[in-house]
User: Fold this.
Amino acid sequence: MYSEDIDLRDIPVSCASHPIIKLKDTIKILVEKGVKEIRVFFRVGDIPENLVKFILSKHGYSIEELRKLNNGSLLIIAKRSERRVLS
Assistant:
């Protein structure tokens, strides 16, 4: 299984650069590459937890695990399942 990390903890918050924009843009690329598992590191002060979950689910990822890290940030591990088309 191919997996990737997305670390949103050190992205400056401005109108042109924001962790939400980075998350959405990165997920689109990872979906195209066929990445099955994503580990997203973020701070709730930058992005609400529910918004991260929503963006991941919008792209077909389901939340497998949520961890609170020692530095106060969160880690979400999400997996994307193959969708079968029934004939």
User: Anything to note?
Assistant: The chain is about 30% helix and 30% strand. Residues 19-33 form the longest helix (15 residues). The first strand starts at residue 3 and ends at 7. The chain has a mean pLDDT of 89.
